[in-house]
């Protein structure tokens, strides 16, 4: 299981990457994709949508189930990763490159963990 | 197996038509097809074998044990079929004069009366063709009710996280936004979370009781009161009614509208043998909004009534009549006492299996369950790598249909078992023996379980490829 040091992590298994230009990318962690199994569909929000901490902003579908993805921050969607619409398997193949949304005007972050804390969190079976 | 088109040979046919004894009249050029029709050309014997082979590829409740949780795959009594095949019921047309179909209307009115007694509702529509269709219809009634009162700010439907997936989907289809309420550790609704979720924007709550972990929510009266006090209405998802027929009624629990799956609880065919029926019952406050074609008695005999502020039709005419008739036959055959005993036996059978399996696998809830229970295989997965799906596949090899997998979502590696009341103790014991043997084999020889099934027409289909790039058309060369 991969836990890149430069990212932050939420308890609902999203990763958060702060880019130099002030925007923030959000994706699903390696742990999340392995628990979900092979993804077959991703339903993304639209640029301009607002995101609120703890609200579902996207859903992903595996052969097992459809799962909500919860926002680790509050802000406005500036771009979505449209590549995923045709190739949801990218999330399984390289979860930390397959960002879901880019967010601007971030007003607040939810409670986030660093890589070490998140690794422990996952090991505890959350 | 071959597609019927792959059995086709040009010029071969199943019918011997008499010689044409009228002048031939060509199709007007405007309407004539430019391309030949793609119809299979086969002899009757090939056609017959094709369907027999198809039948061999499927598994129904007549083939073996079918404990598919939340689906109530009970046996469909033959007497239902006998009644539904009577020519007075089959040889009718929706548009024939109403005085010539009084018996059919009486059957609808009687079925409504009996189902209202079972649910504690005042009126019922039979238009919806299945459960989710019933949810959609019931929510439209709730929407129409609020709108008729000028109460337009009620835009949110509350759904617990253990709900059937159709609940939030139906709410979204009706234009509501969905508020998820978490379950407590006992699998029941978290009352504090519910209190925090309701407000002036609450249109209603959707709930199934017993819930999806097989527990009767002990706080049900408090739950429905919280929603009523906030001005919302309560919707009962009738998927699990088989646990409580003639024992407890949604109407008495505080629900205002309910859908029934006649193809679950009331023994009409379910699955490929359908069609289904998602009858919707409602309290009087919702009666003015019922869909059209509501059969009722009048001074001139039985008639179809249209409710004054009807939401319109959700299906043509009065729904799947012959299905409703089968349900009526079931209720008339069993009577009140028989339906109560059916529910009691459904609960007993479920608990019998739960107690036999519990020493070998953790059960998601403690204590007595209702008509179904949920096994959680997360420990087995950690220890052996064998998943709920692998165990389900291994059950196929034992000649039984697997339980519902990976549902409810609040239980990890879930297998949801609903034996129903129509199975004998011998069948339950054989199923328990087989499941326990699979769980034990998973510990000693996990690879063997992971390689199943071996005795089925196909092994493990590639579900990912099927979902990502489905092949839905037969391409003709």
Low-confidence stretches of chain A: none
Taken in chain order, the helices and strands of chain B follow as HHHHEHEHEHEHEHEEEEHEHHEEHHH
Strand order of the largest sheet of chain B: 1-7-6-5-4-2-3
Annotated CATH topology of the domain at 78-333 in chain B: Aspartate Aminotransferase, domain 2
Q: What separation lies between the terminal Cα atoms of chain B?
A: 19 Å
- CATH homologous superfamily of the domain at 78-333 in chain B? Type I PLP-dependent aspartate aminotransferase-like (Major domain)
Can you walk through the features of this model?
The complex is a heterodimer of chains A (126) and B (477). With 126 residues, chain A is of the alpha+beta class. Chain A has a single domain (14-118), classed as OB fold (Dihydrolipoamide Acetyltransferase, E2P) (Beta Barrel). Helices cover 20% and strands 38% of the residues of chain A. Chain A has helices at 30-36, 83-86, 89-93, 115-123; strands spanning 8-9, 14-18, 24-28, 39-43, 50-51, 56-62, 66-70, 73-80, 101-109. In chain A, the strands form two sheets. A six-stranded antiparallel β-sheet of chain A has the order 1-2-3-9-8-5. In chain A, strands 4-6-7 form a three-stranded antiparallel β-sheet. The longest helix of chain A is centred in the C-terminal third of the chain and has 9 residues, at 115-123. The two termini of chain A are 14 Å apart. By secondary structure, chain B is an alpha/beta fold. Chain B has a domain at 78-333: Aspartate Aminotransferase, domain 2 (3-Layer(aba) Sandwich). Chain B has 15 helices and twelve strands. Chain B has a seven-stranded mixed β-sheet, sandwiched between helices. A three-stranded antiparallel β-sheet of chain B has the order 10-12-11, with helices on one face. In chain B, strands 8-9 form a two-stranded antiparallel ribbon. In chain B, helix 4 (102-119) runs parallel beside helix 10 (321-357) and helix 10 (321-357) packs across helix 13. The model of chain B has no long low-confidence stretch (mean pLDDT 95). The chains are: A alpha+beta (126), B alpha/beta (477). The A-B interface holds A 38, 40-41, 61, 63-67, 88-89 and B 165, 405-407, 409, 463-464, 467-468.
